[in-house]
Amino acid sequence: MALPIASAGKATVTGVLICWLAACSQDDAPSSSPWTANQQAIPVVLEPVTLLPLNERVQSVGTARALRSVLVYPETSGIVTELTIEADRTVATGDVLLRLDARDEELAVELAQVQLEDAERVVKRYKSVNTLNTNIAESQIDEAQATLDTARIALAQAEINLTRRSITAPFSGHVGITEIDVGDRIDTNSVITTLDDRSQLLINFAVPEVYVQQVVPGSPVDVQLWDGAPQEIGGEIVAVDSRINEGSRAFIARAAIDNSDDRFRPGMAFEIALNVSRGSFLSVPDVAVQWGADGAYIWIDNEGKADRREARLIKRLPGMLLVEGDFAEGNFVVTEGIQAVRQGAQLRALNANSLDGNIRAELGSGEGQR
Asked: Which stretch of 77-91, 219-233, 303-317, 318-332 has the lowest confidence by average pLDDT?
C-alpha cells in the first residue's frame, strides 16, 4: 500500500505545480485596466488648438459738452445801458451782447487824443526850427519825443478801457439765458450769460486700463442717447488722457460727434460703444480645461501619449476658452475621456462625429475604460 500512497503524493504535488504555473501565467498576462497607461490605449476625443482673435466691445456712459463753451464775464464794472442777449440765439464772433455806461471812458479817449496831437505839434515845431538853425538843444527834443510817445500810450489805454465797456461774443455760438437787466450794476464777478459752440459735441467717458493701447485718436465709436430710442450716431475718438486713474483703474477718452443739425444739447448723457481688438490667442474647448492644485491645465496629444500642459486663462467665450501656455496652434487636446487620462498614457483617438450618446456618457464618466 506504500506505492499508492506515494502516487497520491505525486499527484498532489503535480496539482499544486499546475495551479502555481497557471497563477503565474495569469500574472504575466496583459491587464485590461485603463490605469496602466503603457499597456492599453485610452479612447479619447481630440480637438485641435485654434487661433482666435479677441475682439471686444467697450461700452461706457458720458456727458456731452460743447466744442467750445464759456461763461461770459465783464472785464470791468458799471451800469448796464444796453442788452442784446436773447436766449438760444445764434451770435457771430464780435457781436455785442451788452454795453456798460461809457461816458467817462469816452471823455478819457478824447483827452488822450488832444494830448497826443499837442505832443505831435511840439515835436514837429522843434524839428522845423532846428532845420533852419540849432537853437534848440538835443535834450529838449528828446524830452518832447518822450512826451509824444507817452501820449500815444495813454490814448491806446483809453481806447482799451472804452472797448471794455462793450461785452462781445468771443466766438460764434448760441447764447444762454441771462439774469441781467438794463440798469443793473455789475462787476467782474457777474456772469452775464453762457456761450456754446455746439456744432460738435465732445463726450468724455471712462475706459478700463487694459485697452489703453487700443483706444487711440481716430478710432470710430458708436454713440446713442443713454435713455432715448436706439439711434446710433457716428463719432470718433479725438483725445485720450495721459494718465490712468489709480482708484478706478481707468482712463478718460474723448469722443466727438457731429451736431451741425443742432439735434443735441450740451449736458446730455450718451452711451459710447467701440470695438477693440486685443490680438489673437490660442483657443480650446472649455471642456478640455481641467483644474488642479496649481491651477488650470489641459491634456495634449504628444505623439500618441498624454502630456499635461499648464494653461493660463485669458478670456471665456461661448463654448471656448482663450488660453496661453506651452502649446501651439494645431496641437490636439483631449476633450472627452479626460477622467481616465494620466501623464504618459497611450491615447486612442475616436471620431467625435460617430459617437452615440451611450459611448459619450461612458467617456465622460470614465466607465468605458474600466
From this structure: 219-233
Q: Which amino acid is at 239?
A: A
* Distance from C-alpha of 101 to C-alpha of 361, rounded to nearest angstrom: 94
Question: Looking at the structure, do residues 262 and 290 belong to the same domain, yes or no?
Answer: no
Q: Chain-centre distance of CA 33, in angstroms?
A: 56
Phi-psi region for residue 210, left (φ > 0), alpha (ψ -120 to 50) or beta? alpha
Q: What is the pLDDT of residues 41-59, one digit of tens each?
A: 899 999 999 999 888 899 9
d(CA 212, CA 278): 10
Please indicate, yes or no, if residue 204 is contained in any of the structural domains.
yes
Burial class (CB in 10 A: 0-12, 13-18, 19+), 16: exposed
| pTM for this predicted structure | 0.66
* CATH number of the CATH domain containing 329: 2.40.420.20
Task: For residues 314 and 359, state if they share a domain.
Answer: yes
Overall domain count for the chain: 3
Which residues form the domain of 308? 42-54+280-369
Residue 71 has φ and ψ, to the nearest 5°, of -95, 130
